[in-house]
Amino acid sequence: MDDVTATIQTTDQTFAQDVIAASHVQPVVVDFWAEWCGPCRALGPILEEAVEAHGNVTLAKLDVDANPQTAAAFGIRGIPAVKAFRDGKLVSEFMGAQPRAQVQRFLAALAPAQVSALPADETGLRSLLETEPERVDARRALGRLLFDAGRFDEADTVLAGAPGDPVSDGLRARIEVLRDGALSDVLPKNGHDAHALAGIIAAIRSGDSAAKARLRRVAVGIIEGERERDPSVEGFRAELASALF
Predict the structure, then answer these.
(1) In a shared domain, residues 128 and 239
(2) Strand partners, 59
(3) Annotated catalytic, 220?
(4) Catalytic residue among 29, 37, 82, 146, which?
(5) What would the pLDDT profile of 90-133 be if each residue is shown by its tens digit?
(6) How many angstroms separate the CA atoms of 182 and 209, rounded?
(7) Residue 191 lies in a domain
(8) Residue 134 domain boundaries
(9) Based on the structure, what is the number of domains in the chain?
(10) What is the pLDDT, as a whole number, of residue 53?
(11) pLDDT (tens digit, 9 = 90+) per residue, 159-200?
């Protein structure tokens, strides 16, 4: 998380600094609430937890009874009222208690979610996936770690949780090739994935339909996984297409 505190209390005296000025650093969501307000007490914890999980946003809570000047300035007539500020300006708002999913969408439209760094160890990656199962990058990393350790069944299970991700699918295809044994000699060795592409494409040219299908998935997975680090792998796409047809 950033060093900016996720949730603060603001007042009539500090609103300009806490919200208007601070929103030039990162967006600020203001929760206009009161102690007697039941819907406010329901929404408050949802907002606080969502902001903490989302990151890149500060939540400023303003008690309208104790701070009537700011409430009046923003025309607050019903609570809870939630207003979002960015670059010193009001940019979005909603009124009334909202479900968690709606609050998350509100935050997502305001600022991109903060993505935590990937742990380097198995325990850390598994813990991250327990809390953020949609993290494809974590599935790739854990799947690769298990694959490199020869724990193919576990790797396959982890990677299966990222359907549609070509890198994960490519690793699953490698597992299938290794289990079959026939074409395992063309797979990458010692972590040098991109170096194996020429041999994989050559094997596709001479292979049967089943081999072509598996090795195509391996090749696509390598290209997708390596292209940011090594843009030259993009040049293999045309060769792959030519080998397939």
Answers:
(1) yes
(2) 7, 29
(3) no
(4) 37
(5) 999 999 999 999 999 999 899 877 666 889 999 999 998 998 88
(6) 14
(7) yes
(8) 122-244
(9) 2
(10) 86
(11) 999 998 999 999 999 999 999 888 888 888 877 788 889 999
With a CB cutoff of 8 Å and minimum separation 6, the contacts of 106 are 82, 84, 92, 94, 98
Q: Which two tokens stand for residue 79?
A: 């609570």
Q: Is 167 a catalytic residue?
A: no
Q: How confident is the model at residue 5 (pLDDT cuts 50, 70, 90)?
A: low
Cβ atoms within 10 Å, residue 121: 10
Of 19, 29, 40, 146, the active-site residue reads: 40
> Which residues of the chain form beta strands (DSSP E)?
7-9, 28-33, 58-63, 81-86, 89-95
Neighbours of 32 (CB within 10 A): 24
For 22-72, give the DSSP string: GGGTS-EEEEEE-TT-HHHHHHHHHHHHHHHHH-S-EEEEEETTT-HHHHH
pTM score over 0.70: no
Instruction: Report the CATH number at residue 21.
Output: 3.40.30.10
